[in-house]
Predict the structure.
Amino acid sequence: MEKRKTDRGIQYLKRKPLRQKPTAHVSYHEGLQLIRRFLNYASYHTVEDIQAFTSQWVPNPHWVRVEAVTIPQKAIDEAADALIAQLGHKGIDGIGGSKWWQWRREDGTLTAEWVEMRSDYDMRKQTKESCRRIMLYVHGGAYFFGSVDAHRYQIQRHARKLGARVLAR
């Protein structure tokens, strides 16, 4: 089959079936189209509609191990103190003070998930070794859009590709 220079993306439209498992590959053009459609959708809907749209739950496949954890208040306070010390008075003033980003809902709990491939977990338990790679994953969206649920597939991919445990919040 001969490709013409004007037919950009023709390799995606007329390619032969894959012999291996399908991938999540999206072409540049397809990705751009998705973003454009989402922005168009967002321009006609409320913030609440967009939040509902972007916080879809993604299940964990059986080959992924997930452990839900609650971050103790003492650890949260120590992290806040360390951040305040690191930023100093000018830095804290530059971000609008030291209280707004420490706000929690009434129950006050902060939860996260340890995510790793089940095979990596089983190997660690067999050899009694600790994990050599750990990644902290904090999703974008300022906790206004999206969630760990919506980012679960990406978190699982990081864990698999890095051979790591990922602490996701």
